[in-house]
Amino acid sequence: MMEQVTQAVPDKSDSGFSEFKRRLFRNKAAIFGVIILSLMFLCAVFAPWLALSDYTRQDLPSMLQAPSWGHPFGTDEFGRDIYSRIIYGARVSLVVGFLAVGISLFIGLLLGSLAGYFGGFIDHGICALIDIALAFPMTLLAIGIIAILGPSLFNVCLAIAASSWAAFARVVRGQFLSLKSQEFVEAARILGFSDTRIILRHIFPNAIAPVVVLATLEVPKAIIVEATLSFLGLGVQPPIPSWGSIISSGRSFLFEAPWITLFPGLMIVLVVMGFNLFGDALRDSLDPRLRN
Amino acid sequence: MLRYVIKRIFLLIPILLGMTVIVFSMLHLAPGDPIDLVVGPNVTPEVRENIRHQYGLDQPVVIQYVSFVKRLLRGDLGQSILQHKPVAEIILEKFPVTLELGLTSLVISFLIAVPIGVKAAVKRNTVTDYGSMSLSLVGMSMPTFWFGLMLLYLFAYKLRLFPISGYGTWRHLFLPAMAIGITDAALTARMVRSSMLEVIRQDYIRTARSKGLSEKAVINRHALKNALIPIITLLGLRIGWIMGGSVVVEIVFTRPGLGRMMVEAILSRDYPVVQGGMVVLTTAVILGNLLADVLYAVVDPRIKLR
Fold first, then answer.
1. Which residues in B lie closer than 8 A to residue A147 (C-beta atoms)?
2. Can you spell out the DSSP letters for B83-149?
3. Each residue's pLDDT tens digit in chain A (292 positions)?
C-alpha cells in the first residue's frame, strides 16, 4: 500500500516535466541564456586548452599592449595575456556562484523547512533571523564578514551565503506552510510516517520548483558580489585571476589601457545576463501564472 | 496611523539588536588578539593587561556587549586606532558625502525608470516594450563599479565633460550618481512595468476609458498613481542596494565617503572604524525601509488593516 502511494507521484511529475521542457525551449530568450551559460562552462572546464598562455606568465616587453591577433584582449601591466586570464577567471566566477548558492540553499532549506513544518517558537526564532539577515544590504554584510574572516575564495562564498540564505529560507518556509495542510501530507501523517520522511519524501519534491528558480537568480547576484569584493581587494587573492581582480588592476591603467577593464566587465555582463534570462524563462515555464 | 507606526518601530528593535550582535562580534571573531591592534608586539605582559583592562576586554563577553550597546545609544562609536580620533567624528564628516550620492542616485533612478516602465507597459509586446526590456536586462547585469569605470573613461577622460575624481560640485557628483542610478533604474523599470500592467487590467481603468477620457489622462491620472504604490515599497528595498553601490562607486570615483573609509579601514584592520561604518550604514538602510513602509501605509490605507 505504501508503495502504491509513492509510485503514483513520479508518473504525474514525469508528464509535467515534459510539458515544462516544451515550454522552456519554446522561449527564445531561454535558449540564448543556455547558449551563453554552456559557453561559459566550456571556458571554465577547458581553460588550460582554450587559454593562449598560462595566466601567470609575465612578458614585460609586451606590457599594456592593445588588443591584437596575438593578444585578442590585450595585455596587462606585466605583459600577461588578458584573454587567458579571463578564461581562467570563468572558473572563479562559476565556482563562487555555485558554491555560495549551494551553501545558502543548504542553510535555507534546513531552516525554512523547520520553520514552516513545525511552526510555533521555532518559526518565530527563524523568522527573526531571516528578518535580520535581510535587513543587511548584501554587499555591506559581505564586506563586514570578509573584514572578520579575511579574504579567500571560500570566505567570499561564506560572506555571500550569509545574506542570501534568507531568501531561500523564506521561500521554503512559505511552501511548507501551504503544503503541510494539504491532504497528501495529512494522509502520510495518518499512515504514521516520521516527520523526517514526510519532510524529505512528501513535501520537498513538491516545494522544489520555486527554490530552483530562486537559485538560478541568486547565482548571478553571487557572481556580481564576488566581482565587487575582488575589485575592492577583499575577494580572491592574486595570482588567481578573478574578473573582479582583473578590473581592479585595470583601474590603475584605465586611461592608457582601457581593455584591461573593458573585457572582464563584458564577461560579467554576459554571464549574469545568461543566468537572468535562463532564470526568468525557468520561472515562466514552471509557473505560467507569474508571467508578465 | 500612529499605532501602525509605533508597531513598526517596535518590530525594528530585534533587528537592530541582531545587527549590533553581528557588528560586536566582528572584533571578537577577527583572528588575533584585539590588543595587538592597539600596541606593538614588543610590550611587556603587564602593559598588555593594563590596556586589556582599560578597554574592558578582561570582562565577560556579555558584559562587554552590554556596554558596547550602551555606548552606541550614547552615540559613542569608539576610537579609531589609526587616526586617533573618535569614530563618530570621522563618520559625521563622511556621511553627508555618501548620503548625497545615494539620494541623487535614487532620484535619477526613478526619473529614468518610471517613464520607461510606463511606456513599456502601455505599448506591451511592441518593439518599444522589447527594446526597453532588453536594455533593462543589460543594465541589471552590469556590476555598478564596472559601469562607473566605463563612464569615467568615456565622459571624464575621452570627452572631458566631467572631472576624473574629487568631490564638491554637481559635476563631481554627476557620473557616480549616473553609474548607480542607471543600473538601479534597470531593475526598477521592470517593476514599474509589471505594476502598470497589473493596474491597466483593473475595472476602474476601463471605466475611465469608457467615460471618454483621453488615453493620456487615463494613464497619467488614473493608472500611474496606482501603479506607483507598490513601487514605494521597492524604494525602501532599493536603499540598501544603493548604499551598497555607493560604497564601491566611491572607490571608483575617489569620493571621500563612508564606503572608502570602510574599505581602507578593513585593509588596515582599524576595526572600530569598520564597526562604526557598519552600524551607521545598516541603521540608515533599516530606517529607510521603515520610512518606505510608513509612506506605503499613508498612500494606501488598506495596508494598515493587515
1. 26, 30, 266, 271, 274
2. T-SBHHHHHHHHHHHHHHHHHHHHHHHHHHHHHHHHHHHHTTTSHHHHHHHHHHHHHHTS-HHHHHH
3. 444 444 444 444 456 677 777 777 777 788 888 899 999 999 888 888 877 777 777 777 777 777 877 777 877 777 788 888 899 999 999 999 999 999 999 999 999 999 988 888 999 889 888 888 887 778 888 888 888 888 889 999 999 999 899 999 999 998 888 888 888 888 888 888 888 888 888 888 888 888 988 998 899 999 999 999 999 988 888 778 899 999 998 888 888 889 889 999 999 999 999 999 998 888 877 765 554 4
